[in-house]
């Protein structure tokens, strides 16, 4: 099928229209490019696909670094400055869709667009021709595994360790179907921890890693939640710290506590997290501080919200619970710092708060270069 791409959409695809009037969401396609594409999903009002032939390439198109780019990092097809600007525009569009006119700051980056991920989970592929296991990813839009021989978004130490483990499996004549996946993570010093997930078996206990953020040490499990791009994460933490202007700080959806403990450990700090494993790690990270750790859903402890407070929000992709937004509107804490991995739900939530708050600043951060994923920091100050 044929279409011409109009723009990029928040999901990361280019959007166009087919001859029969369907919206077409296409990977491997940039704005203004006429594209012939293979259909991967065909619905009544829209279709999805992958561009196979570009008739007139965009001036921003570059050659992807990896053959597996569509599976791991589909924005390898554009120059990096263009990626940064597209992410800024996508954040702006998410807010506009919620009737909020903002002009986001330029997308913040440390300039490293490859070999940045400190965590990777590989599928395992069995090659019937040579009887060997290979690391693999799922082909975008399908459940089919694609074997890989090169991947450039994870830290080199992770890729080297994956090769070592899979070489050992092949020497032992293991079969890929025995395993669910291989998860590996490394710290900033390049120490790697992780393990194989065996089908039908509990997840293995992995050796914790340790990293320093803003001068403070954090311990975390390779299989737990911790940011995958620590240099850029530290940049956003330093930005957040500038807006901690109250002595009372409430960190909701706190994970292992890395935001609150990095920017407000000298304050009257409360950290709230619902995941038991993350909560246990948070308690360890908070040792030696006066921070209070609470195991609960963030929306179930709204009695802790006060007017003289800075509230830090870092919710999952689904955004904040409506009950929490209602309580914020009722109590009106002085400052709300909202870090989001999904600008769509971030904009939705902020639109419900703007009667009493001024959006002081919205800044995209490029935690995930060469992918369409965007981390967005919004600062709201009570009017």
> What proportion strand?
25-35%
Instruction: Write out the CATH superfamily name of the largest domain.
Output: Vaccinia Virus protein VP39
Task: Tell me the number of structural domains.
Answer: 3
The helix fraction, in percent, is 10-25%
Distance between the termini: 52 Å
Low-confidence spans: none
Backbone shape: globular
User: Which fold name corresponds to the CATH topology of the largest domain?
Assistant: Rossmann fold
Number of helical stretches of at least 4 residues: 8
Instruction: Please list the strands of the largest sheet in the order they lie side by side.
Output: 16-15-14-17-18-20-19
Query: Could you say which structural class the secondary elements and strand pairing correspond to?
Result: alpha+beta
Q: Output the radius of gyration.
A: 22 Å
Q: Could you name the CATH class of the largest domain?
A: Alpha Beta
* Overall average pLDDT: 96
Number of strands: 20
């Amino acid at each position: 099928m044929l279409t011409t791409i109009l723009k990029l959409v928040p999901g990361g695809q280019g959007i166009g229209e087919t001859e029969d009037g369907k919206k077409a969401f296409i990977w491997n396609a940039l704005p203004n490019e006429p594209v012939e594409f293979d259909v991967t999903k065909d619905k009544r009002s829209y279709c999805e696909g992958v561009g196979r032939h570009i008739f007139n390439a965009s001036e921003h198109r570059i050659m992807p670094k990896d053959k597996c780019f569509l599976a791991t990092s589909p924005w390898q097809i554009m120059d990096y400055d263009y990626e940064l600007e597209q992410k800024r525009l996508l954040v702006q569009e998410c807010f506009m869709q919620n009737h909020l006119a903002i002009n986001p700051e330029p997308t913040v980056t440390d300039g490293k667009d490859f070999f940045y991920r400190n965590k990777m989970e590989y599928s395992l592929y069995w090659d019937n021709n040579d009887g060997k296991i290979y690391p693999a990813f799922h082909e975008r839009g399908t459940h089919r595994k694609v074997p890989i021989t090169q991947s450039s978004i994870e830290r080199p130490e992770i890729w080297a360790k994956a090769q070592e483990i899979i070489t050992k499996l092949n020497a032992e004549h293991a079969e890929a179907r025995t395993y669910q996946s291989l998860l590996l993570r490394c710290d900033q010093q390049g120490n790697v921890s992780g393990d194989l997930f065996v089908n039908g078996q509990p997840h293995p206990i992995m050796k914790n890693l340790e990293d320093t953020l803003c001068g403070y040490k954090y311990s975390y499990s390779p299989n737990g939640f911790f940011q995958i791009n620590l240099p850029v994460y530290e940049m956003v933490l330093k930005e957040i710290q500038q807006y901690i202007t109250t002595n009372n700080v409430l960190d909701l959806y706190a994970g292992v506590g890395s935001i609150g403990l990095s920017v407000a450990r000298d304050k009257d700090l409360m950290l709230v997290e619902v995941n038991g494993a993350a909560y246990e790690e948070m308690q360890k990270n908070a040792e030696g501080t006066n921070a209070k750790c609470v195991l609960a859903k963030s929306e179930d402890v709204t009695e802790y919200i006060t007017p003289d407070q800075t509230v830090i929000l870092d919710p999952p992709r689904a955004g904040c619970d409506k009950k929490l937004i209602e309580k914020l509107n009722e109590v009106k804490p002085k400052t709300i710092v909202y870090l989001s991995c999904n600008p769509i739900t971030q904009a939705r939530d902020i639109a419900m708060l703007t009667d009493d708050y001024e959006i002081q600043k919205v800044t995209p951060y490029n935690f995930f270069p060469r992918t369409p994923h965007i981390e967005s920091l919004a600062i709201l100050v009570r009017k």
